[in-house]
## 1
Amino acid sequence: MNLEGQTVWITGASSGIGEALAVAASAAGAAVILSGRREAELRRVADGLSGDSLVLPFDATDYDALPAIVARAEGWRGRVDMLVNNAGISQRSLGIETKFEVYRELMEVDFFAPLRLTQLVLPAMIARKGGHLVAISSVAGKAGSPLRTGYCAAKHAVVGYFDALRAEIAKYGVSVTVVTPGFVRTAIAKHALTADGSARGYSDENIDAGISPAEAAQQIMDGLAAGQREIPVGKAGSPEMLLLDLKRQNPDGLFDIMANMAKNL
């Protein structure tokens, strides 16, 4: 995969994995479109890039505004070669206590928003018989983890949608990559939704012990270069990354591990 001269559009680009991917893609010669809600932070990221960039802020769930946003993105350099659906929000609350509205928000931000943006970008890719869609899911998109019922549901949905879409559009020369990160040192836990929809406000030791966003971005870039259709991202041999294999090899064992984790919650 050669990104030289390509246009790469990254959502959730104002921090964390999205910011690190923007830096890596720019260093690889891509022109980068930076999207998210925080325009000032997007401009900060843009100022640090080595190549051309376009700051294109928007709310991922403002579906009425998306057609015009896509038109601006495609009009900047005539095409979007790669769309990285990275924007998202996590959860830290027990299912029995979580308001229904919180589940709706998680599904809107983490599943329906990337689905809708993909729908709008895909026709141009199919018309020119080329393009690449990247979806940032999670290990939680493969394994059900306590305190994350809604997040797991949304990330499982992301995996299912993009796996099925990959099969449908391969004949048009459009590629699909699903990324399943484990623990990465970002603010995801701090901003996670609690039972009433408020932000958690603090991180946790697992996230803080994870790999850096730059390491995550490098693993993603390496996986893209190798043509991987699914890219696990995390510290090799760490417990959360081993869950990906355990789900296939010993599902009952995985279910028991998760139940034990939840006993004292």
## 2
Amino acid sequence: MGRKSNSEEENGDRKPVPRHLLVIRTSAMGDVAMLPHALRALKERYPEVKVTVATQPQFKPFFQGLDVDFLEVDVRGVHHPMRKMWLLATEMRRRGVDAVADVHGVLRSRVFTCAMRLHGITIVRIDKGRKEKERFIETGGRGMAPLRHTVLRYCDVFRRLGFEFDDPRPAVRTPHPNPFGEKQGLWLGFAPFSAQPGKTYPEDMSRKAVELLAARCERLFIHSGGGVEKAFAEEMERLYPNVTALFGKVRFDGEIDLIANLDCVVSMDSLVMHLAALVATPVVSVWGATHPSLGFLGYGVSPEGILQPEMACRPCSVFGNRPCRFGDYRCMREISPEEIVAKVQQLVGR
């Protein structure tokens, strides 16, 4: 007889692990960007297992370097109607999927997994720890240990399907092409924005932070979205000759490559922190309404880079989407631009 595969050897007489695993996570961007850490650990231990990731097409660059396939899910277009998710389930059954890891756990993924279960496919869904997160908010985290990291919750889903592997190691720095040419001197990134006001650095303080950071490095890149964020970044670009507004100049893959070449990134509790974690770039992470102990700190990001105020009213939200009880999100004003610069200097040794 031929040599058994890793999965057959490891499980012995137990039920073998899946041969074709479908992993569902279609949003939000930061949560999708944490998934590659868990998949890297899984594939290192089970390289023969086929993995298909069901996500939005624009998130594919997050998974560069991983041997995975994709099922593109257009949640705002063709796959918006729930019945289309049933059709997707039929397609994946024809492709030979024999297990589904639902690491999203929302209505859309539940509809999909219900359809897969009717096809006889094994389904395991993530435990997001909602009750313990709400308790953390209610108590301000006092007397509570840090909650399980989201990446480890993803790993728990895979393990419940029979896979056995160690927790992921943090990413390591590897060479990436630089979309902005040869690097000379100190290059920094600054990402003051978030989709939620409780996680967004105030504009006046962002202006001061740009001034201070630009004076201490050879190049400063501002990460932003469109609209008012883009307008702010472009204004800073006009004011300071070594500042570059990134929006519209690079796509996701180019932004990740740039971050891999930076010496440090300053980020709120937002996507850029997680992109930096994927390529092991040092991060100064600024926290306001949310808290790193809720399980959303960039995986492998050093706690040494965390800046957060000690305030009785925080954290007030798991995701930063609850209105401030005072109406002014004062927690975000407690971390000064000078503190940010000092923390950057501490991490880069300059």
